[in-house]
Recover the amino acids of this structure.
């Protein structure tokens, strides 16, 4: 970062800033930066628990890999709006919801907690599922024959 020394600077509240003060500030900034804590928008710790909607919104934001500041920039709103929505049980205005859902890569229903989130990873497909998916692309006549054979095997196994 480094500042150019232009002599002591007297601040409005009576403090004099010398090279040592600037060096200290640069060292603190470097330590924070080295530890991934250099965000200018870190804010203060929360004074109360997040409500359910705020917690849900924060989890969606974090799952999208976004900070409050980054999400605010995508939406064209202040970071304080994001913090408000996460700290109070009040969702954003209706005109913001579609942009917010898009930025978080979720549906508006999921954003509002109406529908359960879609699974992020699909489970591995079993051999039978892969075969049936392939069979579903065959002509109808062949699909019916496959279905008859499978139904007969299932019925035989159930009764045997």
């Amino acid at each position: 970062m480094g500042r150019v020394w232009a002599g002591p600077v007297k601040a409005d509240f009576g403090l004099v800033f010398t090279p040592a003060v600037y060096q200290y500030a640069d060292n603190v900034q470097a330590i924070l930066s080295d530890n991934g804590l250099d965000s200018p928008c870190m804010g203060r710790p929360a004074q109360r628990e997040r409500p359910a909607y705020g917690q849900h919104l924060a989890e969606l934001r974090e799952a999208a890999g976004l900070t409050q500041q980054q999400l605010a920039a995508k939406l064209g709103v202040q970071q304080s709006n994001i913090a408000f929505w996460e700290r109070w049980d009040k969702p954003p205005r209706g005109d913001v919801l579609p942009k917010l859902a898009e930025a978080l890569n979720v549906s508006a229903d999921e954003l509002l907690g109406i529908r359960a989130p879609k699974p992020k990873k699909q489970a591995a497909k079993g051999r039978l599922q892969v075969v049936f998916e392939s069979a579903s692309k065959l002509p109808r006549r062949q699909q019916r024959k496959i279905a008859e054979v499978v139904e007969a095997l299932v019925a035989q196994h159930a009764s045997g």
Observations:
- The radius of gyration is 29 Å.
- Residues 127-159 form one domain.
